[in-house]
Amino acid sequence: MNQFIHLTSLNHSCIIKVDRVPEIVHWGARIAQIDADLLLSTERPISQARLDVDIPLSLCPELGSGHFNAPGIEGHRNGNDWAPVFHTTQVEANDHQAVFTLQDDIAKLELTIEVLLDNDTDVLQKRMTVRNLGTQPYTLSKLSSTLTLPHHANELMTFHGRWCQEFQSQRQPLVHGGFMQENRRGRTSHENFPGLFVGSKGFSEQQGNVWGFHLGWSGNHQLRADVKSDGRRFVQAGELLLAGEVQLAEDATYQTPWLYGVYSNQGLNGISDRFHSFVRQSILRFPTQKPRPVHLNTWEGIYFDHNPDYIMKMASEAADMGVERFIIDDGWFIGRDHERAALGDWYLDEKKYPNGLEPVIDHVNQLGMEFGLWVEPEMVSQDSNLFRAHPDWVLGLSGYQQPSGRWQYVLDLQNPECFQYLFDRLDDLLTRYNICYLKWDMNRELVQPGHQGKAAVRGQTQALYRLLDALTHAHPTVEIESCSSGGGRIDFEILKRTHRFWASDCNDALERQTIQRGMSYFFPPEVMGAHIGPGECHSTNRRHSINMRGVTALGGHMGVELDPVKETAEEKQAFAHYIKLHKQHRHLLHSGRTFRIDSANQDQYIYGVAGRNEENQEEVLITVCQLAMPEYALPSPLRISHLDANARYQLTIVEMPKTSFQLMKQAPKWLDKTLELNGDNLREVGITLPILDPESALIVHLKKI
């Protein structure tokens, strides 16, 4: 066949050579045209003491053709057909999409590979489908998407974490060998977010060639980056299948999750900018186009102690602070007085709410706020009416004693009766009450995830998607938050069905700065739930000023997580201040281009957003967060490269920690003034910052004039 397929977008090219199998020869900056001699110029030598033919690093590497690292496909047919070798039989392509059909007549398998390059955002998408052409069942063990990288991609950035500490990044060289991450927790997980970056050595927020990857899948996954002994390198990602999880009958198919990739020659900022644009254009679907409402969630305020009169007082205080959506968290349904009982019994507790939920909702609505409710539909408590009636609805393996997690078990969503019960209960709640928002929680991993004795993480994940799809179809105006003990289920695929993530159960502002930074590489601010918590964080017992808490929450989808009735007038006034500040810049925050600035000081994190406000004026909002004790007595100048060098800007401080003034005998005289500076002044010289206390932050606002 021997031809090139050239996919293009506004800024990038993906050139795929098609011979026996398709392989990428270039994915990066846009190429104007393919020269006639490119075929010859990309021909590889064959070294001594190797196989006697060239082995392509294809879009689905094959063990059977001599790829010794990680094959893209693994499986067998009763012990046979375990090393398929495919041949391309058909290619359909246009400027932005290619579909390759490959076949192995001996193993009786057909492989379809889809590659899309989004024109507007430069995001590359890839998925594969395998079909069993034989009459005997085929056991599929693995089908993962592979994307190749150039030799100068030699540094790897990955993510690790745990509950209350998600999206922690780490780096390592990618020179020999490789990296592999496996997640068997049955959800996207706190520990192993399915995303990574590979780039030129030392790539930073603003500089370097970088390739970013994310697997859009909410179940088990495997993610790896490998360097072959000949120097070629690749990233591979796919669903991690448990033993016997996929058995393909004659003519049956298996389709991989989408693998999303993007290239940037402007460091990590170029990656996040493109991912954010893609999410906004192709993934996220808000029910209505309106400003993202400021939340108050009752959890850290009252936990399980529900009193309707008191909750209405909380709502009144919340409205006075500027809250726009009031959410009752866990504890509203029958028997839910503590964490060990009642999950699954999704009926209002009439002992706690003798007059029903309507008076509370009416009160919330009369105050001008929307009403939201917490649910955890996938779970069941052993001490519940549902479990007593249907113990067989638990996802598990017969004969084993499955360990509980947070004193609860997982329901088998593939059980049709269980699925229908959950849909009916949620549908009834959303029909009966004026609920605009569901906080959908999922608070444990899957252990022994069996359906009718067989491994069932894939089936459980797909059933969850179907349940969410059915509910959103029945109630298209309801927003849903994906929460899973905080950030345990955050990915592009679940976001197609939801509208917000709870980034972490940790509300500690210092920890949140790191968590939200990691999340910001993939997801735009308007889906990142970020709340102001009480002065003493419930998950760390650390105390932070309202400045640090308010500024940290301001940059996401803002809310508050506390009991406003118990807060002092001074504290409530401070909450109102940050809510007002958030609303003032909300349009910019939730539509602009997010960026981060390389700082000379590791103890400082500088980030911002640039775009247009509601009056269509160009604006920039920059946050300087002093994470720890400054390394030097004086801060380094803030140079802002994201500006038009030839334009003129007004610059003001819109937030400054008052306690930091005590650190200076004399503060910079411009702090209480409006400056006018040219873009080249701000880019090359910058502005001198005040000295900041550890764990405090300031915000600079610029407007183009």
From TrEMBL:
InterPro entries attached to this UniProt entry: Aldolase_TIM, Alpga-gal_N_sf, Alpha-glycosidase_related, GH, Glyco_hydro_27/36_CS, Glyco_hydro_36, Glyco_hydro_36_N, Glyco_hydro_b
A Pfam family per the record: Glyco_hydro_36N
Keyword annotations from UniProtKB, A to Z: Glycosidase, Hydrolase
Positions annotated as active site in the UniProt record: D441 (nucleophile), D505 (proton donor)
Biological process annotations from GO: carbohydrate catabolic process
PROSITE patterns given in the database record: ALPHA_GALACTOSIDASE
Domain Glycosyl hydrolase family 36 N-terminal: 22-249
Transmembrane spans: none
Catalysed reactions listed for this entry: Hydrolysis of terminal, non-reducing alpha-D-galactose residues in alpha-D-galactosides, including galactose oligosaccharides, galactomannans and galactolipids
Annotated SUPFAM superfamilies: (Trans)glycosidases
EC numbers: 3.2.1.22
Binding site for substrate: W163, D329, D330, R406, K439, W440, D441, M442, N443, C483, D505
GO molecular function per UniProt: alpha-galactosidase activity
Family per similarity comment: Belongs to the glycosyl hydrolase.
Name of the protein in its database record: Alpha-galactosidase
